[in-house]
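Entry — protein

Goal — fold tokens:
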Amino acid sequence: MKGFMVLIEKEWLSFGFKFATRADHGACVGALLPAKEDAKGDASNDSDSVTFPASSNFTSSVNKASVATFLSKAALRIKNTASAAKSSVSDRSTDDLRDDTSATYTGSSEKSPIFHQFLDCVYQILRQHPDKFEFNSRFLKRLFYHHYSCQYGTFLCDSDFEASTLLKTKTWSTSVWDYFLSRPNEFKNPKFDPSQDSEVLFSNFSDVKWWFELYGRSDEEMNGLSNSLDRKFAQLRLGESLPQSDSESSTGT
């Protein structure tokens, strides 16, 4: 499980995958993040932006006025969705929207479920090789949830430089890995067999199922037709093998 965490840290976070843009965290994150600094280190002078002072304790810096302002903006966004969509400026960048939280956020044009697809691929391999992974499917499901929840600072930024220098989420926020490591028994796979940990895993592309747990459904609801077809094909293969065995036994006698 720790190895998978290191993989995400190296291949996704340190590599510079734009989690904030692809997940479309949007103005909700912009209202809670400290204001960005430009290349010269000058702070933003936008008086309408909801900013927080730099502090090692982020919770203590949140005052009632800023929270009330954020909630009022969110309520206004919900109430005026139709009219805001017509008057929005489509060519504004995501960075500008974070700095100017007084403007109505209309969504990122660069959002994409890339990390979702990656986790789905891992789930398919885990389902086909249930004894090869130390973590279970609940681990992947909670990782998917916190990718969008914004409860932890791990996935709030678009680059490692942004997380460590500009927004400094590594300083004032908690890592999502602390959540998983604080309750490891919930995410351990009881079928895991460490003695068979030296093989290369290959995925069967014809055996792909819906990740029903992610959508809060049962396997029968989402994979019922696929499962029934698998059973029928298995019966057909069994029926084809029976005549061959009978003919072999008759020739032997």
